[in-house]
Amino acid sequence: MVKDLLNVDKLKNYIDGEWHEVEKSTGVVNPATGEKIVDVPLSDKGAVDQAAAAAKRAQKEWALVPAPQRAEILYEVGNIMKERKEEIAKLLTLENGKVLEEAMGEVQEGIDMAFYMAGEGRRLFGQTTPAELQNKFAMSVREPIGVVGIITPWNFPIAIATWKSFPAIVAGNAVVWKPATETPIMAHKMIEIFEEAGLPKGVMNVVYGSGSSVGDAMVHHDDIQVISFTGSNEVGRSIARDCGSQLKKYSLEMGGKNAVIVMEDADLDLAVEGIIWSAFGTSGQRCTACSRVIVHEDVKEELEEKILKGMKQLSIGNGLDEGVRVGPVINEAGMEKIQKYIEIGKEEGAKLLAGGHVMDEGDYSKGHYFAPTLFTDATGDMRIAQEEIFGPVLALIPVSSFDEAIEINNSVSYGLSSSIFTQDVNKVFKAKRDLDTGIVYVNAGTTGAEIHLPFGGSKGTGNGHRDSGIQALDVFTEWKAVYVDFSGKLQRAQIDTE
Ligand code: NDP
User: How far are the Cα atoms of 25, 183, 388 from residue 332, in angstroms, in the given order?
Assistant: First the structure.
């Protein structure tokens, strides 16, 4: 199938509007079948130098193109993505494993982002303000920063790239993008689309390669002025250290340890639907995945039974097959990490109610499949309730009050998403105020962000920036304050106040 959808066997870097072959490469494997689907370059620092130089040249011209005209290209990008939605989604399932329906949803996020950010081309609002002195005018305007380095993970290989590149481009920056080595095809497709939409050469460049080589070279490159990163906490921290010492701007979106709180008055059937979708969709490999259920003790047993019943209905397999709800895990390292946490959970004394094992019989043996897993009687301080597992593993934590539920929700080092199921309006508003995450859902699971709202988290999840929403523009623009004095004399602020 890959051959029908992708016209190359080996991907190439894209620098200054040209495809560049790289000698060294590695194979990309379909996690559902274990088959190699394409080769991806393993570039070195030299390719980053070339891409940064091309971006620097192109950006000067691009910044002078009126923003509404820059936006026209994003409208075109959105239209092409819409036409090719299914083809892109199938390739996404092939390289990442997520089920086709979810892949279609991810591509849709990119389409929505294209149209939303294209709209910003006619806004990019600054402020006009009063001035302190007579015959003086004051305003603030957004300016592009220059060359932006984008480093993306494998779990949302197209959506996250659009959250970052579209605002960067509409604001007048040029981009060097390093996609995750596991999921490079989405970058190839995006470049084809940018080309077709008429994006000038050098505005968007892709350099494939490992994080330790290409990613690191981008972080340390003098001509790359901003790094926008989504990925693990460990890599994010090292990027923060390196950018900090260079006084380089950086935006980080990292992990989560997201919880659904189920109070005693909740609609339990609705809660179970939300929990199952949030915990096992994308095989639990979403940064917003629910991996903890904090449940009031009065409804704990009933909820457990309903979750187990719901889990039995999950069909696990190749995401391209009809009816499959849970696809494979990305790779062997992911499987090992999940397995390790199953052992930790058992040793800590949590009770394993379902799953907890690799699925390796029959067709499953070809891919990376892990059985959806449910622990119960976990406590908030256990490692399985504190650390990100990034797999289809859920831990139930019983509590006896609303206050205890909030306290346990907030006891983790991450702060991405949380949710509460309750019918009590007072609890809803207290939860909205007291849950210390960047995203709060009421009577819905922990996943499913809309692109016109800010996406990101507090505490160990990020560094205060947001992807998507107009807030994303703050990452890719510099504020400039402009004063125009039309008095014809030198007026001195804070001094000529009479
Ligand atoms: P990684 O941090 O391993 O990788 C993310 C990206 O960073 C990849 O492109 C990787 O390249 C690159 N990279 C790795 N090392 C370096 C380095 N030293 N310098 C620069 N770049 C580097 O994360 P995963 O790909 O494993 O993604 C999963 C993680 O991402 C999870 O923790 C998840 O929670 C988080 N995530 C957070 C989201 C959010 O918005 N909060 C959204 C999605 C995921 P390569 O892999 O090619 O080596």
Answer: 20, 15, 17
pLDDT at residue 315 tops 90:
yes
What is the distance between the alpha carbons of residues 137 and 153, in angstroms, rounded to a whole number? 45
CB contact burial 131-168 (16+ within 10 A = b; e otherwise): bebeeeebeeebebbbbbbbbbbbbbbbbbbbbbbbbb
Cβ 85 vs Cβ 310: under 8 Å: no
**Would the pLDDT of 1 be above 90?**
no
- How far is residue 14's CA from residue 415's CA, in Å, rounded to a whole number? 36
Structure tokens at 334: 């992911």
What the block records as the tokens of 386 is: 């504190």
Q: Helix (H, G, I), strand (E, B), or coil: what is residue 255?
A: coil
CA dist 168 to 130, 204, 277, 471, Å? 30, 10, 32, 12
CB 208 within 8 A of CB 48: no
The model's pLDDT over 35-51, given as tens digits with 9 standing for 90+, comes to 999 999 999 999 999 99
Q: Is the pLDDT of residue 498 over 90?
A: no
Mean per-residue pLDDT of the chain: 97
Condensed to tens digits (0 to 9), the pLDDT of residues 204-252 reads: 999 999 999 999 999 999 999 999 999 999 999 999 999 999 999 999 9
Q: Which atom of ligand 1 is nearest to the CA of 216?
A: 19
Give nearest CA residue, ligand 1 atom 6. Answer: 153
Six-digit token pair at 454?
A: 């800010």
**What confidence category does residue 402 fall into, taking pLDDT thresholds of 50, 70 and 90?**
very high
In this model, does residue 497 exceed pLDDT 80? Answer: no
Distance from residue 231's CA to the centre of ligand 1 (Å): 3
Residue 338 corresponds to which tokens in the numbers above?
């999940």
State the first-to-last Cα distance of the chain, in angstroms, to the nearest integer. Answer: 77
Residues sharing a CB contact under 8 Å with residue 269, sequence separation 6 or more, in sequence order: 306
Contact 150, 168 (CB under 8 A): yes
Q: Which among 363, 420, 408, 412 has a CA at the least distance from the CA of 389?
A: 412
Tell me which residues have their CB closer than 6 angstroms to ligand 1. 151-156, 178, 180-181, 210-212, 215-216, 219, 230-232, 235, 238-239, 253-256, 287, 388, 390, 416, 461
Does residue 287 have an active-site annotation?
yes
Distance 98 CA to ligand 1 centre (A): 17
233 CA from centroid of ligand 1 (Å): 8
483 with 131: CB under 8 angstroms? Answer: yes
404: left (phi over 0), alpha (psi -120 to 50) or beta: alpha
Q: pLDDT tens across 92-124, in order?
A: 999 999 999 999 999 999 999 999 999 999 999
